[in-house]
Amino acid sequence: MKFSSALTFLAAAGAQAHYTFPKGYSTGPVSGEWEHIRTTENHYSKGPVQDVTSSAMTCYELNPGTGAPKTLSVAAGSNYTFTVDTSIGHPGPLHFYMAKVPAGKTAATFDGKGAVWFKIYQDGPSGLGTSSITWHNDGKSEVSVRLPSCLAPGEYLLRVEHIALHSASSVGGAQLYIACAQINVTGGTGTLNTSGKLVSFPGAYKATDPGILFQLYWPVPTSYINPGPAVATC
């Protein structure tokens, strides 16, 4: 009976550590929930994506094809911030990707399919090789990224992704928390080189990639390889 109660407690604690990215802002006030960020399938449960081949890997949308009601203007070279509900509750890397909306589409109608995504940020752990591994995003209630100043002006999807590695020692154990914001980039130079760095979601990751299938605790890891392409920079 005590063992059963302990399992129930651990399951509840794990669920409470789950999270979403419902609001965002740049230089203005924080948006309303799901205002220019597409409502995610986990907006109530806060649960993760665990199948990296799932169509949910694109934007984890509740209703694919509907888009968010608004698109936020953000200047190239400025910061964009997602709020976290309630906070980053598990250890693992944070990634940001962008996809340029093609001609004939808007940020609200673009489905984000195909090899259109380029990475603009990734972080990693400190303390590798010790018993005190930490991640820059641990416990954050907001996560931010600086948009490259060399982006081409126009509408984009901005995809945040946090990969929780606490259960990633077996295939399918990594937990991915994802959301996509609809933004209109202004003032960029258009010189960003994404050659060889465009990927699709799903498709960019395999379940056996070393940054997805990862033993966080023992043996103590001495390296970490972020999954996906290299960061596209100016």
Automatic annotation (TrEMBL):
<keyword id="KW-0624">Polysaccharide degradation</keyword>
<keyword id="KW-0378">Hydrolase</keyword>
<comment type="similarity">
    <text>Belongs to the polysaccharide monooxygenase AA9 family.</text>
</comment>
<keyword id="KW-0732">Signal</keyword>
<keyword id="KW-1015">Disulfide bond</keyword>
<keyword id="KW-0479">Metal-binding</keyword>
<keyword id="KW-0503">Monooxygenase</keyword>
<keyword id="KW-0964">Secreted</keyword>
<dbReference type="GO" id="GO:0005576">
    <property type="term" value="C:extracellular region"/>
</dbReference>
<feature type="domain" description="Auxiliary Activity family 9 catalytic">
    <location>
        <begin position="25"/>
        <end position="224"/>
    </location>
</feature>
<dbReference type="InterPro" id="IPR005103">
    <property type="entry name" value="AA9_LPMO"/>
</dbReference>
<keyword id="KW-0119">Carbohydrate metabolism</keyword>
<dbReference type="GO" id="GO:0004497">
    <property type="term" value="F:monooxygenase activity"/>
</dbReference>
<dbReference type="GO" id="GO:0030245">
    <property type="term" value="P:cellulose catabolic process"/>
</dbReference>
<keyword id="KW-0186">Copper</keyword>
<dbReference type="GO" id="GO:0046872">
    <property type="term" value="F:metal ion binding"/>
</dbReference>
<keyword id="KW-0560">Oxidoreductase</keyword>
<dbReference type="Pfam" id="PF03443">
    <property type="entry name" value="AA9"/>
</dbReference>
<dbReference type="InterPro" id="IPR049892">
    <property type="entry name" value="AA9"/>
</dbReference>
<keyword id="KW-0136">Cellulose degradation</keyword>
<dbReference type="GO" id="GO:0016787">
    <property type="term" value="F:hydrolase activity"/>
</dbReference>
<protein>
    <recommendedName>
        <fullName>lytic cellulose monooxygenase (C4-dehydrogenating)</fullName>
        <ecNumber>1.14.99.56</ecNumber>
    </recommendedName>
</protein>
<feature type="signal peptide">
    <location>
        <begin position="1"/>
        <end position="17"/>
    </location>
</feature>
